[in-house]
TrEMBL record:
NCBIfam families on file: aroE, PRK00258.1-4
Record-annotated SDH C-terminal domain positions: 247-269
Record family assignment: Belongs to the shikimate dehydrogenase family.
Function: Involved in the biosynthesis of the chorismate, which leads to the biosynthesis of aromatic amino acids. Catalyzes the reversible NADPH linked reduction of 3-dehydroshikimate (DHSA) to yield shikimate (SA).
Stretches assigned to the Shikimate dehydrogenase substrate binding N-terminal domain: 13-97
GO molecular function: NADP binding; shikimate 3-dehydrogenase (NADP+) activity
GO cellular component: cytosol
Residues reported in the UniProt entry to bind NADP(+): G135, A136, G137, G138, A139, N159, R160, T161, V162, E163, R164, I224, G247
Recorded catalytic activity of this chain's protein: shikimate + NADP(+) = 3-dehydroshikimate + NADPH + H(+)
Protein residues bound to shikimate: S21, R22, S23, T70, N95, D110, Y226, Q254
Protein name from the UniProt record: Shikimate dehydrogenase (NADP(+))
Length: 285
């Protein structure tokens, strides 16, 4: 927590564990860039202690304007917030909090980060009607919501455990369809976007050969895994001559709205910031 003698504005990222978070690098870069007197720090808080942490955020004794929430507190954050917005309430998870007049507000900027990354790196990626999302865990929800809100007509969720995909189809409405893994080739046919939201490709987990030739030739393939930056799926897509977008930009862009709320300036995702985070990934792999 900030020292009560400190001046300026202060924000946090709260999670458990928290030492691998790259958010302090991102916000620290913007604080320096704008020469803002303030701080952004990592808070390691257990699930049992999270309600107390939130109470101290609300009553001002923690000294914070707001902050980011990461695993495992995203669901509890939206439940405990006084004013969750529509996005975080529908998702049942918040990643951004701020305090106004003694009330805690929450939102979720993951979907926005996902869209902004694709808009930046592959303009026109969203001109197709059909998207395929692999995975039905916590990370896929924000993406399904974002694709639906962007106007995709068909969002096909393919998951090893089909029941989890069905739950998401029920939650996100009539444009979302659930399928088992075996349906992947059929579902990819004619799609303009393929997104991996699973842990496949992380930590050397082997990845099957995906039938990417079924996609439209102008389709985009993206992965929300960004360690490694070029995942096995993205490599396969490159071999098929498809356009690819890595997942790092989603992390960078999801941070923008929070910084603006807490510090009052709208920051930009620059090549220098991207390089800074990549350098950190290389030294703390
Ligand atoms: P997160 O919140 O990061 O999305 P999660 O809720 O544990 O994490 O979800 C992980 C996703 O990766 C799920 O879609 C999971 O499939 P199941 O729902 O069937 O568990 C998927 N996943 C993980 N390992 C996988 C593997 N080896 N093959 C296929 N899917 C896998």
């Amino acid at each position: 927590m900030p020292d009560s003698r400190e001046t300026g504005r202060h924000a946090f990222v709260v999670g458990y564990p928290i030492k691998h978070s790259r958010s302090p690098i991102i916000h620290g870069y913007w604080l320096r860039q704008f020469e803002i007197e303030g701080s952004y720090r990592a808070e390691e808080v257990t699930e049992a202690d999270f309600p107390v942490f939130l109470g101290r955020l609300r009553d001002g004794t923690a000294g914070y304007s707001g902050g980011n929430v990461t695993i495992p507190h995203k669901e509890m954050a939206v439940r405990l917030a006084d004013r969750p917005d529509v996005l975080s309430e529908e998702l049942g998870a918040a990643n951004t909090l701020w305090v106004e007049d003694g009330l805690v507000y929450s939102t979720n900027t993951d979907g926005l980060g996902f869209l902004a990354n694709l808009d930046e790196r592959r303009p026109g990626w969203d001109r197709f009607e059909k998207a395929v999302v692999l995975g039905a865990g916590g990370a896929s929800r924000a993406i399904i919501q974002a694709l639906r809100d962007r106007g995709f007509d068909e969002i096909h969720v393919v998951n090893r455990t089909v029941e989890r995909a069905e739950e998401l189809a029920d939650r996100f409405g009539r444009k979302v369809f659930a399928h088992p893994m075996g349906a992947l080739a059929e579902v990819l046919t004619g799609a303009g976007l393929f997104v991996n939201t699973t842990s496949l490709g992380m930590h050397g987990i082997p990845v099957p050969d995906f039938p990417l030739e079924r996609l439209k030739p102008e389709a985009t393939v993206t992965d929300i895994v960004y360690v490694p930056l070029v995942t096995p799926l993205l490599l396969q897509a490159e071999h098929h001559g498809l356009a690819t977008v890595d997942g790092l930009g989603m992390l960078l862009h999801q941070a923008v709205p929070g910084f603006e709320k807490w510090f009052g300036r709208r920051p930009e995702v620059t090549p220098e910031l991207r390089a800074l985070v990549i350098a950190d990934m290389e030294t703390h792999a």
